Amino acid sequence: MVPPISASRLFLAAAGAVLVRPRLWGVGINTWFRMLPSGWWSKPPFLPLPAREFLEFRMVTMYGGDGSSTPDLYAADVVAWLDWCKSWKSGEE
């Protein structure tokens, strides 16, 4: 069984890491909104948070096993991933 993944905990760790890296703001915001389920504004808790099932799937595919990790790894991994997304979209190597 996958432990509960807190979208808000992941968001805070990632946002804190991205906040000090303005070059990642655009790709970070774009990526966040791409993860949101359709009609998120019409269902409680009325917050732009990814679906729990989606986060569980991504955590297991990222970290293996039960998908558990620590917030400091979340932040570092999100920054590395956003750097990759930015360079991939721009065609940089």
Please describe what this structure looks like.
With 93 residues, the protein is mostly helical. The chain has one domain (7-87). It has four helices and no strands. The chain has helices spanning 7-19, 25-35, 52-63, 71-90. α1 packs across α4 (71-90). The longest helix has 20 residues, at 71-90. It is globular, with a radius of gyration of 14 Å. The relative contact order is 0.20.
Q: Give the low-confidence spans.
A: none
Total count of helical runs of at least 4 residues: 4
Helix-strand pattern: HHHH
- Main sheet record: none
What is the structural class? mainly alpha
Give the assembly state of these chains: single chain
Q: Please give the number of β-strands.
A: 0
Strand content: under 5%
Radius of gyration from CA coordinates:
14 Å
Q: Gap between N and C termini, in Å?
A: 38 Å
- What's the helical proportion of residues? 55-70%
What is the molecular shape? globular
Question: What's the mean pLDDT score?
Answer: 79
Number of domain modules: 1
Question: Which features would summarize this protein structure in a list?
Answer:
93 residues, 0% strand, mainly alpha
Layout of SSEs?
Layout: H1 7-19, H2 25-35, H3 52-63, H4 71-90
Helix pairs in contact: 1-4
Task: Characterize this entry briefly.
The chain is mainly alpha-helical and 93 residues long.
